[in-house]
């Protein structure tokens, strides 16, 4: 690399400061991050993230969201925030995913969770609980402009939860101290850093922050209009009218036979895995951020229908992708299917001589195919099977290639000098030097396409 370019990169690296730093790639010809595909793995469920509030499963509190309403788990982008990650103006959509609709930013565009400052819990829902290094949380500053695109400069850190590299499911809920020196509409950004990939998951949570000095002792109004809109042999879909509150309703408790079975931010709930031909009694309570609880709604008695033979297959598995490959393995993953009764397992197929052959089954949404040939392309599909052995339609075909045998290549060293044509291994991938240069310790240079190029399998 020429000295002029090296000097420019070094100045840029040293100039990065705190939350307002720009992404290293921005505006520098020599540094271009390798694009990463987004797949569904996890999101903040409580308080509901902007994407979760788009989903029918969480009451469709946000409308006109696009396809993210089906995949709130999918907001994945390169990690490294705030110095890396999505660019300013595209933070909420993790770099423009799903058409960038989530980046629309006005004071009244999105549903707001009413919360109080101080210790708050944030609970994640994982569809694939990757090994994890940390979660980190940010909030918009006092005086931020809610009618302008969200930027790093508008955010400040409020907490980090470090992890030991084990599965994210070992740490579902985090207690974060939300500032008590501001009120009204704010945005909280929650970032989940995966330990064994270069990516993270980005979730924004719209909140109505309440930090009034006078204690709130007024409970929300009693929920009314409780109704069972759909009833089957094993599920009941409930709807009710929204309660009102002097400050704001935070959530609703759903009670079945007198016991709380869940809390939801919206006014719909689907109770699943019920017994056929059985009567259940439901009530609803409304809660505000101060913990005041409304009167219980009127009771609603619902009887599930008689059981009938299950002939309904699970939904098609979506988002089949590879979490990584070696010279002899392919690590597959996909989003879970839905079923009227329940998914029992998944079947993985691999093409051989033009025919998809079953190679294994799994109870999880992941599967590692082993003993493969190096530098070879393989095609896969996955199906879901329920307890009645109904099998779903096949997923979209995934074509993925195993890596070159990298055993002869050394591991990349950020401080070492390399010559044009040298090949190295980094995070399981083989790279070839585009030009000669002297490293300075920057861990991002391996991703600069003007310095290194990934060696693609033929």
Automatic annotation (TrEMBL):
Listed GO biological process terms: polysaccharide catabolic process
CDD domains (alphabetical): ChiC_BD, FN3, LPMO_AA10
GO terms assigned for molecular function: carbohydrate binding; hydrolase activity, hydrolyzing O-glycosyl compounds
Keyword Ribonucleoprotein applies: no
InterPro entries per UniProt: CBM5/12 (IPR003610), CBM_sf_5/12 (IPR036573), Cellulose/chitin-bd_N (IPR004302), FN3_dom (IPR003961), FN3_sf (IPR036116), GlcNAc_Chitin_IntDeg (IPR051024), Ig-like_fold (IPR013783), Ig_E-set (IPR014756)
Chain ranges of the Fibronectin type-III domain: 219-307, 313-405
SUPFAM superfamilies per record: Carbohydrate binding domain, E set domains, Fibronectin type III
Chief site of localization: secreted
GO cellular component: extracellular region
Keyword field: Carbohydrate metabolism, Glycosidase, Hydrolase, Polysaccharide degradation, Secreted, Signal
UniProt KW Metal-binding keyword: no
Subcellular location: Secreted
Protein name from the UniProt record: Chitin-binding protein
Source organism per UniProt: Bacillus mycoides
